Amino acid sequence: METPPLFDQLLDRLIDSQIEFVVIGGYASMIHGSTYVTHDLDICAVLTPENVRRLREALGDLHPKHRMTPRKLSFLEIPQEDAPPLHNLYLNTDWGTIDILTNVTGVGDMQRLKNTATRITDQGKSYYVMSLADLIKSKETLAREKDLLVAKELRAIASAQQQPPNS
């Protein structure tokens, strides 16, 4: 039996490591109220050498492996000074899958996302979640069947949020 992902704990690790990021994708959709379940945590971040070092420290004990490589190379195996500049990281960890992108299709980079993101504070910790409008745009740009279904639901959520409550 597979262990369920521990996305809240992964988020705590990222926050504690002081990596600047925005939660994107399915988990952001769930935070905004989507009923579609996601199987990974997607974030957008700038992958500077310093942020990569922080990621290695934050995730090191969770056995991060590159999930897009044939032999599932450890994120910790390649010395950072030998690694080429990174644009995206797709990792499996003991706590679940985390995808780290530097750019979101149809929307832009981390700084662009952060400008319109929603700031969430939970148990004294703050992080940013991609705005509902940006989520809809990214899902519609990707145009995969599952993304279009989520975009339709997110549009309904956005519409309901603009309605005044019944008295």
Question: How would you explain this protein's 3D organization?
Answer:
Helices cover 38% and strands 23% of the residues. It has helices spanning 7-16, 25-31, 49-59, 110-116, 132-142, 145-161; strands spanning 21-24, 40-45, 65-66, 88-93, 96-101, 103-104, 108-109, 118-122, 125-129. The model has no long low-confidence stretch (mean pLDDT 87). Strand 8 and strand 9 form a beta hairpin. It has a seven-stranded mixed sheet with strand order 3-4-5-2-1-9-8, with helices on both faces. A two-stranded antiparallel sheet has the order 6-7. It has a single domain (7-159), classed as Beta Polymerase, domain 2. The chain starts with 6 loop residues before the first helix and ends in a 6-residue tail after the last helix. It is of the alpha+beta class.
The count of DSSP E runs of length 2 or more, i.e. the number of strands, is 9
- Nearest-angstrom radius of gyration? 16 Å
Fraction of helical residues: 25-40%
Distance between the termini: 48 Å
Assembly level: single chain
Per DSSP, what share of the residues sits in E-state strands of 2 or more residues?
15-25%
Number of helices: 6
CATH architecture: 2-Layer Sandwich
Please state how the strands of the largest beta sheet are arranged side by side. 3-4-5-2-1-9-8
Uncertain stretches of 5 or more adjacent residues: none
CATH T-level fold name = Beta Polymerase, domain 2
Mean pLDDT: 87
Number of domains in the coordinates? 1
The secondary structure category is: alpha+beta
Can you summarize the main beta sheet? Answer: 7 strands, mixed
